[in-house]
């Protein structure tokens, strides 16, 4: 079978790319290893940058996001027992973030794809890509298939098959952090109407939400930690936020390790990588999903333009490295990095400066609401 773009991976990057291409009249086939239920239930990110919101509107899928998402115009940094608000919108000419779960974005994109009767195959296996020939072979419902394409989009996440196919030509830039995040979802009202990023001697904590009735919280932990019993999690959150947080039944618990990772180039032959397949950030600052969206906005607009495709890596990486620095900076300012008291003093100075200098607060705000997406 022939198509213009073979998209490997039906996560946010692959699904959004399919939608953008469709709106430009370009054919694609999306291949996803998991089943629909699994992809729609996978709990991950929750913060949409301004440009991701704009992209959802641009592709005609912003309606539920506007109805159910929570727009935030500020965020709190908490340290030494005190909270300090960073006025995101005031500092960025009115830009904001929206709390809308990644799986909601994925649901909206899948529904639109299926509604448009365009090919999206779940539960494919044995996916193999040939970047030189532009072919993808895979098994679906027991049958083997071969897809020929002008371009293969590797949107199959960090553990996918596309990046390893071209590993011989890649330079890898990587950093692992000696901690992870223990995340919970609980049935209770958020303890604060804005997100709180807390620096504490026992480790970082983050208070977020999914709705007015669902709380999302994270605790810095060992990268290989087992989730703590519920009561211990709540007690630890109280300690790190320095307040009694609202409690309720916890219905989701998990530990995520943290790493920074970038490959260069993001393309070889007819294969173009986008999203987590090409780069990972530590979650502090909520950039993973948004950066995946930035990549596919650029890739979709480059299709059919040879010079733009040639420049894809360079243009994508410019934004990727900005995001890498921001995520690294937020991570190292807010987490317990080591037992070294010198490091703690440096962090406290950096935090005090960030909340007291308009220049530094603006730098945080403009990166947090996100830089504009680049298109060809
Ligand atoms: P993915 O979402 O990983 O999608 C890739 C898709 O490809 C998946 O559906 C996968 O099933 C599929 N696939 C894999 N291999 C194959 C194959 N061989 N063939 C076909 N399909 C394949 N970011 C934040 O900003 N904030 C957070 O709080 C946050 N929390 C996270 C928690 C976890 C546990 C993880 C793993 C990530 C988290 N992220 C977070 C990062 C964010 O979720 C990702 O950056 C985002 O999902 C990237 O989208 P993507 O489409 O590039 O990759
Ligand atoms: C969430 C995740 C993040 O990584 C972050 O920085 C803020 C919020 C969340 O899942 O709500």
UniProtKB/TrEMBL annotation:
Domain FAD-binding as annotated: residue spans: 2-326
Gene3D superfamilies: D-Amino Acid Oxidase, subunit A, domain 2, FAD/NAD(P)-binding domain
Keywords, in A-Z order: FAD, Flavoprotein
Record has Flavoprotein as a keyword: yes
Molecular-function GO terms, alphabetical: FAD binding; oxidoreductase activity, acting on paired donors, with incorporation or reduction of molecular oxygen, NAD(P)H as one donor, and incorporation of one atom of oxygen
Record protein name field: 4-hydroxybenzoate 3-monooxygenase
């Amino acid at each position: 079978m022939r198509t213009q773009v073979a998209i490997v991976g039906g996560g946010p990057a692959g699904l959004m790319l399919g939608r953008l291409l469709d709106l430009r009249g370009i054919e694609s086939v999306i291949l996803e290893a998991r089943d629909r239920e699994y992809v729609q239930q996978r709990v991950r990110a929750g913060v949409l940058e301004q440009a991701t919101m704009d992209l959802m509107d641009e592709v005609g899928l912003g309606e539920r996001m506007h109805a159910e998402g929570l727009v935030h115009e500020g965020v709190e940094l908490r340290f030494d027992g005190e909270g300090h608000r960073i006025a995101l919108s005031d500092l960025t000419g009115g830009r904001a973030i929206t709390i809308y779960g990644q799986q909601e974005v994925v649901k909206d994109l899948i529904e639109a794809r299926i509604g448009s009767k365009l090919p999206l195959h779940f539960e494919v296996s044995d996916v193999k890509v040939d970047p030189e020939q532009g072919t993808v072979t895979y098994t679906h419902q027991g049958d083997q298939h071969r897809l020929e394409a002008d371009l293969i989009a590797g949107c199959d996440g960090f553990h996918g098959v596309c990046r390893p196919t071209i590993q011989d030509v890649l330079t890898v830039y990587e950093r692992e952090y000696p901690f992870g995040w223990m995340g919970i979802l609980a049935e209770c009202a958020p303890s604060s109407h804005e997100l709180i990023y807390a620096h504490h001697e026992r480790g970082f904590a983050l208070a977020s939400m999914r709705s007015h009735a669902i709380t999302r919280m994270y605790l810095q932990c060992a990268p290989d930690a087992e989730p703590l019993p519920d009561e211990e999690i709540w007690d630890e959150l109280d300690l790190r936020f320095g307040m009694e947080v609202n409690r309720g039944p916890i219905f989701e618990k998990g530990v995520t390790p943290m790493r920074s990772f970038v490959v260069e180039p993001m393309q070889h032959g007819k294969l173009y990588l986008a999203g987590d397949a090409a780069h990972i950030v530590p979650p502090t600052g909520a950039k993973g999903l948004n950066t995946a969206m930035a990549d596919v906005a650029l890739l979709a607009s480059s299709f059919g333009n040879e010079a733009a495709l040639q420049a894809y890596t360079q243009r994508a990486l410019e934004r990727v490295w900005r995001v890498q620095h921001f995520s690294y900076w937020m991570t190292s300012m807010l987490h317990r990095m080591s037992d070294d008291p010198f490091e703690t003093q440096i962090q406290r100075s950096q935090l005090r400066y960030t909340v007291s200098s308009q220049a530094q607060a603006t730098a945080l705000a403009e990166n947090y609401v996100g830089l504009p997406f680049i298109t060809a």
